[in-house]
TrEMBL record:
Record protein name field: DUF6843 domain-containing protein
Origin superkingdom: Bacteria
Organism: Paenibacillus ferrarius
Domain DUF6843 residue range list: 29-113
Matches recorded under Pfam families: DUF6843
């Protein structure tokens, strides 16, 4: 009986270790847009004269201005993306994936910067 208990406990511990080591460690990226924003969002990374993004635990917060253009000193990191409209009271409304598209990034060059862009709106 003790042998089976030891084997079961060992399997559970190994399973837990496997789960912890394979969990997605990439940060979540939350883009906060002005209410009813439509157009291209452009984030330029590696800009030393600009402030870093706000980070809450394992989440980066992007406060996108009305122009749609944001510059940050952060380096671009991969991870899941969520996009929200923010009203005047600070309330967030999630933008469905159907309303943002064309997510792309390019980088390198002489200035060693990376730019990420995507479009908010409908196909119409």
């Amino acid at each position: 009986m003790k042998k089976y208990l030891f084997i079961a406990l060992t399997i559970m511990v190994l399973g837990l270790i496997f789960l912890i080591t394979t969990t997605n460690k990439n940060p979540l990226h939350i883009y906060l847009l002005p209410e009813n924003f439509v157009g291209e969002v452009e984030v330029t990374f590696d800009q030393l004269d600009y402030p870093p993004l706000t980070k809450e635990r394992n989440t980066f917060i992007y406060h996108i201005p009305k122009s749609g253009k944001l510059k940050t000193s952060n380096t671009m990191e991969s991870g899941p993306v969520e996009v929200y409209y923010v009203d005047n009271q600070g309330q967030r409304k999630k933008v469905s994936h159907e309303h943002f598209s064309g997510v792309s990034s390019h980088g390198g060059g002489e200035d060693n910067q990376t730019v990420a862009t995507f479009f908010i709106g409908t196909k119409e």
